[in-house]
Design brief:
The structure is a homodimer.
Chain A lengths: L1 H7 L3 H13 L4 H8 L7 E7 L5 H14 L4 E5 L12 H11 L4 E5 L13 H11 L3 E7 L3 H6 L5 E6 L5 H7 L2 H4 L2 E4 L7 H15 L9 E3 L8 H17 L2 H32 L1 H11 L5 H8 L5 H12 L4
Parallel strand pairs in A: 1-4, 1-5, 2-3, 2-4, 5-6, 6-7
Helix pairs in contact in A: 1-2, 2-6, 4-5, 4-11, 12-13, 13-14
């Protein structure tokens, strides 16, 4: 694909166009993915998650500056609807971010929200791959860690940083929201606020209590991202986590699991797409749908009918056979 | 099914057992659903959603009291991990709720969180149906309106009440989280706090601005649930929304869409379950999976291979044919 070739040669506009296609989940996506797969580079992907208002985008902003100082390139995916990267915050934030907008070594992409619900697009994983193939050294994904979809996306990253602020109740909410289980590194941001020390101590105790595994002790760090306090240390911990993942073989294992999941999801998608097209066009199947809608048959019995061999199966195989020759 | 029969005769223990099965998504679920489908009653389902700390469970608690006073029965599903119904809140809350625990006309069920992530179980829709078949007049579903899954569950309810509190930034967050689009009724709870009047006015303006449809004007109500202020009025608005849905034919239409969705989801589930079982047991398919994991083939090309007619299709039809005779 020409667009992919141009992107691989470093053309930012092509990259942006490809992202839009992947984001919209267009028909070209499998072809794009096949084309970029051999070019997936060495990008390391860091997820920054936490409740709204924790200062995640400031952390991303400051981390980017540190990584750039090391001469490495950065791709930023803001999948947080309240992020200043996506345009969700006050003007001051947006102005701060502009230093990176002017830096050629930084590519910033805010994800459109899925449907009208403001949920995270499932296609974020594909966008990470595009930035990877484009040659970025680091990919930072900013997301609000709340729903299942958001947490699923975190399975595409290598290191997950959970950002909290010293406010009452935060810890309990964090536990409940499942953030505790995905955290590789905890950051207590806005650490100049009252209660920060307590939250750090509390998190350290919690980490200590549940860390039965000895390969990685989740660090709890205090930062004031807005004042650049603690950011280099955070960068150091991310690097340390990466090394540990590599040395213990866990990075390889994680990548294998990611590929496996991608395969399963692709097969699932294609099979169900095919099915729904069938249900829409096959007369007999359409009748079942109408009966379900009218409440004349329950959805489960209708599914039995539709999946009976001789009906859907036959129709399906026939249609597939029409499209390409059996090999 | 005996358990279903007993549940339909009013046995609470059987109901609880069935809910557990549905919640765990056991193999019996399609059979249970088929058995209860003809018994789906006249239950009206109200979703109570909003950010954590808005007082949703207090609203549910007080609404329940009002509905009970009308001689109607209530089923409560708490799918909010921070709800006192699920045990997520302070002791005081839980004691308050106990009045309903002792009332035979109220059935309370807290949903276990899905996986380890604390996300809402997709099976909530099935649990609503069980409470419906059991004969409850009202079903109240309490959930935190944040992720996509949570919002999907709201498609199973008839009236959605969005509960907010007068705190800065809430409105914007609400917009972003997609709560604005699903609200049939807005409640500004803790209305004795400063800023409540402003929030009410702001919401009213927003409602007014975007209400192109004239069939329902989303009301904005101020409540102090803890002091029982505004709860009867809220109940009145829910009733009014219900009547409007019925008179305009929208309730019928919504129910049709729900059945349609249920059918599609059931078919999708069964087809993919079948597929994954195949991939696991079929030698040729297993080899593809291994190659994907090792990175020797990209997931998309592997999916092409697996879905080629003559491989999976053939194997699948063969297996389906073995299980039951073709009709």
């Amino acid at each position: 694909m020409e667009l992919v070739d141009e992107m691989l040669r470093g053309d930012v506009l092509s990259l942006a166009r490809l992202i839009t296609t992947v984001e919209r989940d267009g028909a070209d996506v499998p072809r794009i993915m096949k084309a970029i797969y051999p070019h997936l580079g060495k990008a390391y992907c860091v997820g920054i998650t936490g409740p709204p208002g924790a200062g995640k985008s400031t952390v991303v902003d400051r981390l980017t500056a540190v990584i750039r100082q090391q001469g490495l390139t950065v791709g930023i995916i803001a999948a947080d609807p309240t992020s200043p990267f996506t345009g969700g915050a006050v003007l001051g934030d947006r102005i701060r971010m502009q230093q990176h907008y002017l830096d050629e070594g930084v590519f910033i992409r805010s994800m459109a929200t899925r449907g009208s619900h403001g949920g995270l697009p499932r296609t974020t994983g594909g966008v990470i791959k595009l930035l990877n193939a484009f040659g970025k050294d680091f990919i930072l994904v900013e997301t609000v860690g709340v729903g299942q979809t958001e947490l699923d996306i975190m399975e595409n990253v290598d290191t997950t940083v959970v950002v909290l602020v010293p406010e009452a109740g935060d810890t309990i909410q964090t536990m409940k929201a499942g953030l505790f289980e995905i955290a590789d590194i905890f950051v207590v941001n806005k650490a100049d606020r009252p209660g920060a020390d307590n939250l750090v101590t509390e998190l350290q105790m919690m980490v200590h209590l549940r860390c039965e595994e000895s390969w990685w002790q989740v660090p709890v760090m205090a930062t004031e991202a807005i004042n650049n306090v603690g950011i280099e240390e955070l960068c150091g911990q991310i690097e340390k986590h990466r090394q540990t993942l590599e040395e213990t073989g866990r990075l390889t294992q994680r990548r294998q699991e990611q590929r496996r999941r991608e395969f399963m999801e692709t097969v699932e998608r294609r099979v169900t797409d095919e099915l729904f097209r069938l249900i829409k066009h096959d007369e007999e199947l359409g009748q079942h749908m109408a009966m379900v809608e009218a409440g004349e048959i329950d959805p489960y019995s209708a599914a039995d009918e539709v999946l009976r061999p001789g009906t859907l199966m036959a129709s399906w195989s026939r249609q597939l056979a029409k499209r390409r020759p059996t090999s």
